[in-house]
Design goal:
4-stranded parallel β-sheet, about 425 residues, globular, alpha/beta, 19 helices
């Protein structure tokens, strides 16, 4: 970072010593994993810059927005509709953490055998190293898994008050009714927080911004079907991760510029890996910044990732909000329809996800599917079996990995992934 933000971090209540340690580790990891790649598209320079300023310039932008009276809303899940935040002039940012930090403090409040994503969020908060937590005017948690449901209660007393959004567990008329009621309640909360009323025009504008962002991400995802792969899975994952933090309009323009470059690569037959490198679809749990371990292992073991069936990937960008309605209630209903179609593993039964995995495998030309599960993430661990059955039933090789955020198992993972890649290339 070219600018000294220490006073800003101090004003936000961060522990500067712990925060410095986090940034040092993050910077070194980023250099070793991302900047060490060969033949990256030049357009990735923008995303490198965003990451270099993720705790600097972007946080300053959030504070500037707050000074203008625009609420900053932090959330943990793709079920929280960004459209309703933007419709009151607000700023939406993601809060999920992908690193093991202050787990010793966390385990004084929750069981040790809790998934790393939950522990990381609480660790970042308890250690006072996340400026997004303290910069936000509102934190929004959602009742997906049981671990999160209870984590919101604990975090409410330890870190900050949280607006909890209940979610359905069954795709039914009653389930859609619950989601509609929760989105209406969230809409009222945003109006209360901002002092502004959501209008037909403001919601149409917000939907347009988010639809264009998803369209840009979907465009990049389609380009990854080319052989040779024109962009690494690591870089594509990074773009999806940045989508949760960056200004949506600026982000969309940057993704489309990257896509223009990647399209030219495809036309020229240029790839970041040789043609016919074993192609892998990663399915399962989301990967929040800086959780890059498994993709790094895959792409330094002879494989290339060509798609992510994940919330930080296809599940987050799939489907647009319909705009062919004439009133506010109709637009809210369209938002509900779009988010209710998300095939999260919390739903039972969840056949749509199995179909989406097969569709994405076919579209990307994946030679194999790797199911990534965080230890103690029960919904995705339980669904790994049905996904394996669906994929292997079509004759596609499948590998199931369960891990956490530590680097202790890297060599074990590398051995298993290397054998899988060898199988795909054979």
């Amino acid at each position: 970072m070219a600018t000294d933000y220490r006073q800003m971090w101090t004003d936000l209540g961060l522990d500067l010593e712990a925060h410095d340690a986090l940034l040092q580790a993050l910077g070194q990891g980023y250099q070793d994993i991302f900047l060490a790649q060969k033949g990256r598209p030049a357009g990735m320079g923008y995303f490198d810059f965003v990451m270099s300023e993720v705790h600097g310039l972007r946080v300053k932008e959030l504070l500037d927005a707050k000074a203008e009276g625009r609420p900053v809303v932090g959330s943990f899940c793709v079920f929280v509709p960004e459209e309703l935040v933007l419709a009151v002039g607000g700023v939406a940012v993601g809060l999920c953490a992908g690193a093991e930090f202050a787990f010793d403090k966390v385990e004084q409040h929750i069981p040790r055998n809790t998934c790393a994503l939950i522990k990381a969020f609480l660790g970042f908060g308890l250690a006072r190293v996340c400026p997004y937590l303290t910069a936000a005017d509102l934190l929004v948690g959602e009742n997906t898994c049981d671990g999160k449901k209870k984590a919101w209660e604990i975090a409410d007393g330890l870190i900050a008050p949280i607006h909890v959004m209940d979610l359905p567990q069954v795709k039914s008329a009653e389930g859609r009714g619950l989601l509609t009621a929760e989105y209406r309640r969230f809409m009222a909360k945003m109006e209360e927080l901002s002092g502004k009323q959501i209008t037909l025009e403001s919601l149409e504008d917000a939907i347009g911004v988010v639809n264009r962002k998803r369209a840009a991400l979907a465009r990049l995802a389609r380009l990854r079907s080319a052989n040779p792969a024109p962009i690494s899975g690591l870089d594509a994952l990074l773009v999806n991760q940045v989508s949760f933090y960056d200004d949506p309009v600026r982000f969309t323009a940057s993704v489309n510029a990257l896509c223009d470059e990647v399209e030219a690569r495809v036309a020229a037959g240029k790839g970041v890996f040789p043609a016919d490198t074993p192609r892998i679809l990663v399915s399962g749990c989301p990967m929040a910044v800086p959780n890059w371990k498994v993709p790094w292992v895959i792409e330094t073991s002879g494989g290339v990732i060509v798609g992510e069936e994940s919330c930080v990937g296809e599940r987050g960008l799939r489907d647009q909000v319909a705009t062919d309605v004439a009133d506010l209630d109709g637009l809210l209903g369209a938002i509900v329809d779009r988010y209710f179609a998300i095939d999260c593993a919390i739903f039972t039964p969840n056949p749509d996800r199995l179909g989406h995995v097969r569709e994405l495998r076919d579209r990307t030309g994946a030679d194999g599917v790797l199911h990534y599960g965080l230890q103690f993430c029960t919904p995705y661990q339980m669904e790994a079996g049905p996904v394996e059955k669906a994929v292997k039933g079509d004759g596609t090789p499948f590998l199931r990995l369960e891990t956490d955020y530590s680097m202790e198992d890297v060599e074990q993972l590398r051995t298993r992934v290397g054998a899988f890649v060898e199988l795909l290339g054979g």
